[in-house]
Amino acid sequence: MKSIPVDLLQQKTSIGLQIKVFRPDDQHQNKKEISDAHRDDHYIFFLLTNGSGTLKVDLQDIVVTAGQLYYILPSQVHSHIKAERAEGWFIAVDTALIPPYLRDVFERPLDLQIPCKLTDHELKQYSTLLNLLLNEFAEQRGDEYHRAIVRTLGQSFLAMAASTYDLLNTTQNTHSRSAEIAHQFKSLLTIHSHTIKSPAAYASKLNVTPGYLNEAIKKVTGSTVSYWIQQEIFSEAKRLLYHSDADVKQIAHELGYTDHSYFIRSFRKASGMPPSKFRMLNRK
């Protein structure tokens, strides 16, 4: 069975972090078609200093422009960035190097994360740090001092990125208690979506009533708990339908459905079409 490819960071570096600069004269920027959808076993960050770039993340088109920071989570299926005379930074980081309190920020949004606009001062700070990181990474001495320096600079970048996105999340959401509940719910949903599909079960894990959980999630996102459970499940279903050759029954089983007919009915209700039609239309 064809599955979605997974890009492994350990095949590229032994220190858990990789950094590159991309420029307008890079050959890959001239490619018009790139059918290379995959997942990563690590985080990826893009910071553009000039030009723009487009990529598809979980079947959604994302445009990153000069002065914007963007990241991709390990679970998300995406293409390589297709740049339009772009300059900037590419940073890949092993999840094991990202402390839980920073991962909480990056994994907090219930919906797909968006590019974050930096101020001129922030962009200058990021560029200074990333130049240091790039110079140290390029040394490739292989000793423990080198490894420690690279990882420490990488941690500084991650803390800056988390601070940037945390400020964005705080600005967008003034309901602090509801935001915390939504964050905890998202964390649980990421872990348990294949096995727990009941709003009441998530409310129980959070020690709140189903009504309170639903009210908090609606206040923060505008949508219900049931909607986000379906979004998590069927986003993964769409990834598998589009990028793998697993049949519908196999996909239903992988997502925790013992009755694939029920999965088909639920998918149709959420997406407006059965899984087979989604695959046929999107693979044209």
TrEMBL record:
Task: Give the protein's recorded name.
Answer: AraC family transcriptional regulator
| Gene3D superfamilies, sorted | Homeodomain-like, Jelly Rolls
Domain HTH araC/xylS-type: start-end pairs = 203-281
Keyword annotations: DNA-binding, Transcription, Transcription regulation
> InterPro entries per the record?
AraC-bd (IPR003313), Homeodomain-like_sf (IPR009057), HTH-like (IPR037923), HTH_AraC (IPR018060), RmlC-like_jellyroll (IPR014710), Tscrpt_reg_AraC-type_HTH (IPR020449)
